[in-house]
User: Fold this.
Amino acid sequence: MLRHFPAVNVEVTHNQRDYYIIAFAFVAVALCFSIDSVASLELQYALGIAGWASLIFILIGECKYVRAQVFVAVTFASIGENFASLYMSGYTYRLENLPWFVPAGHGLVYLTAIVIGRTDLFLKHARAIAAFVVSVGGTWSVLALLGIVGREDQIGAVLFVIYLVFLFKGRSPMVYLGAYFITTWVELIGTSLGTWNWAAIDPASTLTQGNPPSGVAAWYCLVDAVAMAGAIPVIHATEKALVFLGLKKAGESSFDSVK
Assistant:
Protein backbone atom coordinates (compact mmCIF):
# COMPACT_ATOMS: atom_id res chain seq x y z
CA MET A 1 0.00 0.00 0.00
CA LEU A 2 2.94 2.34 0.60
CA ARG A 3 4.85 1.58 -2.60
CA HIS A 4 4.57 5.18 -3.79
CA PHE A 5 5.72 6.64 -0.46
CA PRO A 6 9.37 7.76 -0.18
CA ALA A 7 11.84 5.26 1.24
CA VAL A 8 12.40 5.29 5.00
CA ASN A 9 15.35 7.50 6.05
CA VAL A 10 15.54 9.03 2.58
CA GLU A 11 18.25 11.66 2.12
CA VAL A 12 16.72 14.98 1.11
CA THR A 13 18.33 18.34 0.41
CA HIS A 14 16.72 21.14 2.42
CA ASN A 15 15.23 23.86 0.18
CA GLN A 16 14.48 27.07 2.07
CA ARG A 17 12.48 28.45 -0.86
CA ASP A 18 9.83 25.78 -0.42
CA TYR A 19 9.14 26.90 3.14
CA TYR A 20 8.84 30.52 2.02
CA ILE A 21 6.22 29.46 -0.56
CA ILE A 22 4.29 27.50 2.06
CA ALA A 23 4.33 30.37 4.56
CA PHE A 24 3.24 32.82 1.87
CA ALA A 25 0.37 30.59 0.77
CA PHE A 26 -1.05 30.11 4.26
CA VAL A 27 -0.80 33.83 5.07
CA ALA A 28 -2.12 34.90 1.66
CA VAL A 29 -5.19 32.67 2.01
CA ALA A 30 -6.08 34.13 5.40
CA LEU A 31 -5.43 37.70 4.23
CA CYS A 32 -7.36 37.32 0.98
CA PHE A 33 -10.42 35.80 2.65
CA SER A 34 -10.36 38.40 5.42
CA ILE A 35 -10.38 41.19 2.85
CA ASP A 36 -13.04 39.44 0.77
CA SER A 37 -15.35 39.19 3.78
CA VAL A 38 -16.05 42.92 3.39
CA ALA A 39 -14.95 43.44 -0.22
CA SER A 40 -16.91 44.99 -3.04
CA LEU A 41 -16.92 43.43 -6.50
CA GLU A 42 -14.21 45.89 -7.57
CA LEU A 43 -11.99 44.88 -4.65
CA GLN A 44 -12.49 41.24 -5.62
CA TYR A 45 -11.08 42.13 -9.04
CA ALA A 46 -8.01 43.61 -7.33
CA LEU A 47 -7.60 40.47 -5.22
CA GLY A 48 -7.76 38.44 -8.42
CA ILE A 49 -5.02 40.51 -10.06
CA ALA A 50 -2.85 40.16 -6.95
CA GLY A 51 -3.50 36.42 -6.89
CA TRP A 52 -2.47 35.92 -10.50
CA ALA A 53 0.62 38.09 -10.09
CA SER A 54 1.69 36.08 -7.03
CA LEU A 55 1.11 32.74 -8.73
CA ILE A 56 3.01 33.71 -11.88
CA PHE A 57 5.92 35.08 -9.85
CA ILE A 58 6.23 31.84 -7.84
CA LEU A 59 5.92 29.67 -10.96
CA ILE A 60 8.93 31.40 -12.52
CA GLY A 61 11.11 29.42 -10.14
CA GLU A 62 9.46 26.07 -10.93
CA CYS A 63 10.30 23.57 -13.65
CA LYS A 64 8.30 23.36 -16.84
CA TYR A 65 6.46 20.21 -15.76
CA VAL A 66 5.19 21.80 -12.53
CA ARG A 67 4.09 24.90 -14.42
CA ALA A 68 2.16 22.72 -16.87
CA GLN A 69 0.57 20.81 -13.99
CA VAL A 70 -0.57 24.03 -12.38
CA PHE A 71 -1.99 25.28 -15.69
CA VAL A 72 -4.03 22.10 -16.10
CA ALA A 73 -5.09 22.19 -12.44
CA VAL A 74 -6.33 25.78 -12.73
CA THR A 75 -8.25 25.01 -15.92
CA PHE A 76 -9.86 21.86 -14.54
CA ALA A 77 -10.66 23.39 -11.14
CA SER A 78 -12.18 26.49 -12.74
CA ILE A 79 -14.49 24.35 -14.88
CA GLY A 80 -15.41 22.45 -11.74
CA GLU A 81 -16.12 25.70 -9.88
CA ASN A 82 -18.52 26.89 -12.54
CA PHE A 83 -20.35 23.57 -12.49
CA ALA A 84 -20.36 22.83 -8.76
CA SER A 85 -20.98 26.37 -7.50
CA LEU A 86 -22.72 28.44 -10.16
CA TYR A 87 -24.72 25.64 -11.79
CA MET A 88 -25.30 23.02 -9.08
CA SER A 89 -25.16 25.38 -6.06
CA GLY A 90 -23.20 22.83 -4.04
CA TYR A 91 -21.60 25.84 -2.39
CA THR A 92 -22.18 29.55 -2.85
CA TYR A 93 -19.75 32.46 -2.67
CA ARG A 94 -20.62 35.56 -0.66
CA LEU A 95 -21.62 37.66 -3.67
CA GLU A 96 -23.12 34.63 -5.48
CA ASN A 97 -20.47 34.87 -8.19
CA LEU A 98 -17.14 33.24 -8.97
CA PRO A 99 -14.60 35.68 -7.45
CA TRP A 100 -11.65 36.60 -9.64
CA PHE A 101 -9.17 35.34 -7.07
CA VAL A 102 -10.56 31.78 -7.11
CA PRO A 103 -8.86 30.40 -10.29
CA ALA A 104 -5.47 31.78 -9.23
CA GLY A 105 -6.20 30.53 -5.73
CA HIS A 106 -6.67 27.00 -7.03
CA GLY A 107 -3.30 27.24 -8.74
CA LEU A 108 -1.63 28.45 -5.55
CA VAL A 109 -3.29 25.76 -3.42
CA TYR A 110 -2.32 22.99 -5.83
CA LEU A 111 1.24 24.31 -6.11
CA THR A 112 1.45 24.53 -2.32
CA ALA A 113 0.36 20.90 -2.03
CA ILE A 114 3.20 19.93 -4.37
CA VAL A 115 5.68 22.07 -2.46
CA ILE A 116 4.64 20.76 0.96
CA GLY A 117 4.95 17.20 -0.28
CA ARG A 118 8.51 17.69 -1.51
CA THR A 119 9.90 19.34 1.64
CA ASP A 120 12.54 17.48 3.59
CA LEU A 121 10.20 17.43 6.61
CA PHE A 122 7.43 15.59 4.78
CA LEU A 123 9.71 13.29 2.79
CA LYS A 124 11.59 12.17 5.90
CA HIS A 125 8.45 11.67 8.01
CA ALA A 126 5.90 10.69 5.38
CA ARG A 127 4.54 7.67 7.23
CA ALA A 128 4.16 9.49 10.54
CA ILE A 129 2.43 12.41 8.83
CA ALA A 130 0.14 10.00 6.97
CA ALA A 131 -0.78 8.36 10.27
CA PHE A 132 -1.56 11.80 11.72
CA VAL A 133 -3.76 12.74 8.75
CA VAL A 134 -5.61 9.41 8.85
CA SER A 135 -6.26 9.64 12.59
CA VAL A 136 -7.24 13.32 12.71
CA GLY A 137 -9.14 13.27 9.43
CA GLY A 138 -10.87 10.02 10.32
CA THR A 139 -11.94 11.36 13.71
CA TRP A 140 -13.27 14.55 12.12
CA SER A 141 -15.21 12.56 9.51
CA VAL A 142 -16.80 10.25 12.08
CA LEU A 143 -17.74 13.08 14.45
CA ALA A 144 -19.15 15.12 11.56
CA LEU A 145 -21.03 12.11 10.20
CA LEU A 146 -22.72 11.71 13.58
CA GLY A 147 -23.44 15.44 13.82
CA ILE A 148 -21.28 15.84 16.92
CA VAL A 149 -19.01 18.40 15.22
CA GLY A 150 -20.96 20.87 13.13
CA ARG A 151 -23.91 19.69 11.09
CA GLU A 152 -24.38 16.15 9.81
CA ASP A 153 -21.84 15.43 7.06
CA GLN A 154 -22.40 12.26 5.04
CA ILE A 155 -20.66 13.54 1.91
CA GLY A 156 -17.56 14.41 3.95
CA ALA A 157 -17.22 10.82 5.14
CA VAL A 158 -17.54 9.54 1.56
CA LEU A 159 -14.92 12.04 0.37
CA PHE A 160 -12.53 11.06 3.16
CA VAL A 161 -12.74 7.38 2.16
CA ILE A 162 -11.98 8.42 -1.43
CA TYR A 163 -9.06 10.49 -0.12
CA LEU A 164 -7.66 7.45 1.70
CA VAL A 165 -7.82 5.39 -1.49
CA PHE A 166 -5.85 8.08 -3.33
CA LEU A 167 -3.38 8.43 -0.47
CA PHE A 168 -2.48 4.76 -0.23
CA LYS A 169 -3.00 3.63 -3.82
CA GLY A 170 -2.34 6.76 -5.88
CA ARG A 171 0.93 7.81 -7.49
CA SER A 172 1.30 11.12 -5.65
CA PRO A 173 0.85 10.43 -1.92
CA MET A 174 3.10 13.32 -0.92
CA VAL A 175 0.98 15.77 -2.91
CA TYR A 176 -2.15 14.34 -1.28
CA LEU A 177 -0.63 14.75 2.19
CA GLY A 178 0.25 18.34 1.38
CA ALA A 179 -3.21 18.91 -0.06
CA TYR A 180 -4.86 17.81 3.17
CA PHE A 181 -3.13 20.55 5.17
CA ILE A 182 -3.54 23.44 2.74
CA THR A 183 -7.13 22.56 1.73
CA THR A 184 -8.19 22.12 5.35
CA TRP A 185 -6.76 25.56 6.09
CA VAL A 186 -8.49 27.07 3.05
CA GLU A 187 -11.86 25.52 3.90
CA LEU A 188 -11.84 26.35 7.61
CA ILE A 189 -10.79 29.97 7.01
CA GLY A 190 -13.06 30.46 4.00
CA THR A 191 -16.22 29.06 5.57
CA SER A 192 -15.63 30.72 8.95
CA LEU A 193 -15.28 34.14 7.29
CA GLY A 194 -18.25 33.56 5.00
CA THR A 195 -16.24 33.65 1.76
CA TRP A 196 -18.42 30.72 0.71
CA ASN A 197 -20.92 28.36 2.31
CA TRP A 198 -21.58 24.72 1.48
CA ALA A 199 -25.19 23.65 0.94
CA ALA A 200 -26.61 21.53 3.76
CA ILE A 201 -27.64 18.90 1.19
CA ASP A 202 -25.26 18.01 -1.65
CA PRO A 203 -27.35 18.60 -4.80
CA ALA A 204 -25.67 15.81 -6.78
CA SER A 205 -25.95 12.97 -4.25
CA THR A 206 -28.64 14.38 -1.88
CA LEU A 207 -26.36 13.41 1.02
CA THR A 208 -25.97 15.75 3.98
CA GLN A 209 -22.97 18.03 3.75
CA GLY A 210 -20.86 19.81 6.33
CA ASN A 211 -19.65 23.38 6.08
CA PRO A 212 -16.99 22.43 5.09
CA PRO A 213 -17.20 18.71 4.26
CA SER A 214 -14.62 16.80 6.31
CA GLY A 215 -12.98 15.00 3.36
CA VAL A 216 -12.81 17.94 0.98
CA ALA A 217 -9.11 17.27 0.24
CA ALA A 218 -10.27 14.40 -1.99
CA TRP A 219 -11.17 16.91 -4.68
CA TYR A 220 -7.53 17.95 -4.98
CA CYS A 221 -6.55 14.31 -5.43
CA LEU A 222 -8.76 14.33 -8.52
CA VAL A 223 -7.27 17.64 -9.62
CA ASP A 224 -3.77 16.14 -9.27
CA ALA A 225 -4.69 13.08 -11.33
CA VAL A 226 -5.96 15.31 -14.14
CA ALA A 227 -2.95 17.64 -13.85
CA MET A 228 -0.47 14.77 -14.08
CA ALA A 229 -2.24 13.33 -17.11
CA GLY A 230 -2.49 16.67 -18.86
CA ALA A 231 0.92 18.21 -18.14
CA ILE A 232 2.94 16.49 -20.88
CA PRO A 233 0.32 17.11 -23.61
CA VAL A 234 0.28 20.79 -22.60
CA ILE A 235 4.08 20.96 -22.86
CA HIS A 236 4.00 19.31 -26.30
CA ALA A 237 1.26 21.69 -27.50
CA THR A 238 3.19 24.70 -26.19
CA GLU A 239 6.35 23.59 -27.97
CA LYS A 240 4.49 23.14 -31.25
CA ALA A 241 2.96 26.60 -30.89
CA LEU A 242 6.38 28.14 -30.26
CA VAL A 243 7.78 26.40 -33.34
CA PHE A 244 4.82 27.59 -35.42
CA LEU A 245 5.39 31.17 -34.23
CA GLY A 246 9.09 30.92 -35.00
CA LEU A 247 10.10 31.36 -31.37
CA LYS A 248 11.75 27.96 -31.20
CA LYS A 249 13.55 25.62 -33.59
CA ALA A 250 11.84 22.39 -34.57
CA GLY A 251 13.28 19.38 -32.75
CA GLU A 252 14.71 21.47 -29.92
CA SER A 253 13.83 19.75 -26.64
CA SER A 254 12.42 21.59 -23.68
CA PHE A 255 12.44 18.63 -21.34
CA ASP A 256 15.85 19.23 -19.79
CA SER A 257 14.13 20.95 -16.88
CA VAL A 258 11.39 18.35 -16.54
CA LYS A 259 12.38 16.03 -13.75
